[in-house]
Amino acid sequence: MNEYVVQAREVEKKLGSGAGEVQALRGVDFSLRRGELTLLMGPSGSGKTTLLLILGCMLAPSSGEVTVGGASTSKADKEELAKIRRDHIGFVFQSYHLFPTLTASQNVQLALDIRGERGQAAVEKSREALKMVGLEQKRNSLPLELSGGEQQRVAIARAIVAKPSAILADEPTAALDGANGHTIMRILASIAHERGSAVLVVTHDPRVVPFADRIVQIEDGRLIDERSGGPKRVRRSAAFSG
Q: DSSP assignment of the chain, as one string?
């Protein structure tokens, strides 16, 4: 089995047109491996989120190739790309993207609904995902009844409920205080180490560095440095009670 879940080769991306055209990515080679939490770090405007969206098949590169689960996305149409996302990718965003009128459990079940999984089986899978992030007891709560950290944990449960091979997280700790940010990173690290997923965290937050297996620096659309992560303080269960 290939240890690489997502691979990008010589990826270029131009945004805008004419005088407003920007070269967002320049010849990027990048891979995500199973069982590893990778940080992609760089200043604002460096191309971090653009690369994440391309790796997640939400944005097409101007040139170069992306493979997900061993299959090239170059010639895939919109429906095929949507299937690749459903089968392989889970997304976590800074702003949670929860539906305010749905309970935590119902928000998680949405990720199963788009895959055609409904009924009691979906309820049980949702409950198990919430248990993994320590929120089984909050499964009937609405988002407004949850703290910011708890809402982000619901978003993670939604991302992992279908057991994707890769989790892509865009600034998942940016809106959280230190304690909640560390909780989120412990969960994401556990998803990588215990479930064998490839986890990518796009961030400019230096507080999360100790949780990484690998740290990649990007600047002006180019990858400029790669190194191993800090001390592994996080190889523990992702179930949290708080």
A: --SEEEEEEEEEEEES-GGG-EEEEEEEEEEEETTEEEEEE--TTSSHHHHHHHHTTSS--SEEEEEETTEE-TT--HHHHHHHHHHHEEEEETT----TTS-HHHHHHHHHHTTT--HHHHHHHHHHHHHHTT-GGGTT--GGGS-HHHHHHHHHHHHHTT--SEEEEESTTTTS-HHHHHHHHHHHHHHHHHH--EEEEEE--GGGGGG-SEEEEEETTEEEEEEE-------S------
Q: Across all residues in the chain, what is the average pLDDT?
A: 90
Crossing angle for the helix pair 178-195 and 148-160, to the nearest 10 degrees: 20
pLDDT (tens digit, 9 = 90+) per residue, 2-29? Answer: 589 999 999 999 998 888 889 999 999 9
Of 158, 220, 221, whose CA–CA distance to 25 is shortest? 221
Instruction: Inform me whether the pLDDT recorded for 230 exceeds 70.
Output: no
Domains of the chain: 33-59+75-228 (3.40.50.300)
Q: Per-residue pLDDT tens for 84-123? A: 998 999 999 888 899 999 999 999 999 999 888 889 999 9
What values do phi and psi take at 186, rounded to 5? -65, -40
On whether the CB atoms of residues 19 and 182 are closer than 8 A, the answer is no
Token code pair at residue 205: 């937050």
Question: Which carries the bigger pLDDT value, residue 233 or residue 205?
Answer: 205
Burial zone of 230 (CB within 10 Å; 0-12 exposed, 13-18 middle, 19+ buried): middle
Segment 161-186 shows an average pLDDT of 93
